[in-house]
Amino acid sequence: MFYEPGKTEHNLPHDPFKACVVPRPIGWISTKNGKGQANLAPYSQFNNLTFDPPYVMFSSNQTVNGTRKDTVINAEETGHFVWNLATWDLREAVNITAEQVPYGVDEFTRAGVTKEPARTMDVPMVSESPVKFECEYHSTVRLPGNPPMGTVDVVIGRVVAVHIRDEVLTDGLLDVAKTQPIARCGYYQYTVVRETFEMVIPGMSEDVLYGLEGSARKNADVHSGAAGGRANAANASAASAASANALESAEST
C-alpha cells in the first residue's frame, strides 16, 4: 500500500503511522508547578539526543481542547523535569498517569506511587522506578499542526544527574532483564523488553565505537589525544620553520 498523509487516504481501519515507528521509549515525566503541585505523565515520543553532555527530549501534543500539557508548562516555568523509567511492574501506574485530569491534580497520589526527592532540583521522582534522570530545561521547539491536537511541543533538557539502582546492574552493565522497560507500539499496544542481542559494527575505529557506546569519558580521552596530536604537529611545524629560518640566516652571512 501507499498513501500520502494529509493528501490521500490509507483506507485502513486505523491510522498506521505510529504503528510503523516502534517500539518507542516512554518518557514518564515528573514536574512541579510554581505553586509546588506535583505532576506525572507519560509521553510515547521520547528519546536521548546526545551523550556528552547528555540531552533528552520528549514531545507533547496539545490536548483535545487545543491547550498545552501541564508537563510542558511546568518545565518551562520552573526550568526542571525528571524522567522516570517506565517498567513492566509499573505499567498500571504509568497508564493511570496518562489520564487527563484538571491542572494541579497530583498524579503520584492517583497512581499510588511514592515521591522521592531529587538531589539537584525541587522535583519529585518516582521512587519505585529503577532509573531516573534529573533534567534542566533547555528549550522548546513548537511544531504547528492541525487542530485540535496536531500542534506539538518538543521539550529538550540536559541531564544533570542520573539515578540507577544497584540491583538492576549485572557485571557493571544496566540489565534490561532486570529493569524490564515497557515501550509504546501502535494503537493501544505496548511491549516489554526482556532480551537483547549484541552486534559490533565491523571495520569501525575505536573512536567511533566509543561514540556508539555513548562513553563521555572515552570521548574526552579521544578529544584530548586529538588536541595533543594537533598541538604536537603545530609545535613540530613551528620548530621546522624556525630551523629553516636559522639556516637561511646563517647562509646569508
Keywords, separated by commas or semicolons:
single chain, 253 residues, alpha+beta, Pnp Oxidase, Chain A, 14 strands
What structural class results from the helix and strand content?
Answer: alpha+beta
**Count of distinct structural domains:** 2
What do we call the CATH topology of the largest domain?
Answer: Pnp Oxidase, Chain A
* Major beta sheet summary: 7 strands, antiparallel
Second CATH tier, the architecture of the largest domain: Roll
The counted number of beta strands is: 14
Radius of gyration from the alpha-carbon trace, in angstroms: 25 Å
Sheet-strand content, in percent, reads 25-35%
Instruction: Summarize the amount of helix as a percent range.
Output: 25-40%
CATH H-level homologous superfamily name of the largest domain: Electron Transport, Fmn-binding Protein, Chain A
Query: Given the structure, what is the number of helices?
Result: 7
Oligomer: single chain
Describe the global form.
globular
Mean pLDDT: 91
N- to C-terminal distance: 84 Å
What is the CATH class of the largest domain? Mainly Beta
Q: Give the uncertain stretches in residue-range form.
A: none
Q: How are the strands of the biggest sheet laid out side by side?
A: 3-2-6-9-10-5-4
Helix and strand run: HEEEEEHEHHEEEEEEHEEHH
Protein name: Flavin reductase like domain-containing protein
Organism: Penicillium argentinense
InterPro entries: Flavin_Rdtase-like_dom, Split_barrel_FMN-bd
Domain Flavin reductase like: 19-175
